[in-house]
Amino acid sequence: MDTNYMKYTEITDILKVLAHPIRMCLVKRILDQGQCNVSHMQTCLKVPQSTVSQHLQKLRYAGIIEGHRNGLEVNYKIRDERIKKLINSILMLS
């Protein structure tokens, strides 16, 4: 039996952040689009822009996504290939 449970800290922290329906939906949307901006996500989810921004902030702090400024808008993309594999496994995607 593996007794070094501390090595699982990073993945459990990521799973905690993803364990919210809006954040999971945001990550799925970004995966589907390759990258996405707040306005597009807000329109698709039909939630206030501030709600989307708060959830994106949590995803950014967890290292799941990263944003790239393009003029006035910020486009978000998945930061790590492992996250793509994890989400595809969770949602049973190819």
From TrEMBL:
Domain HTH arsR-type: 3-94
InterPro entries: ArsR-like_HTH, HTH_ArsR_DNA-bd_dom, HTH_MetalResp_TranReg
Keywords: DNA-binding, Transcription, Transcription regulation
Protein name, as recorded: Metalloregulator ArsR/SmtB family transcription factor
Originating organism: Clostridium frigoris
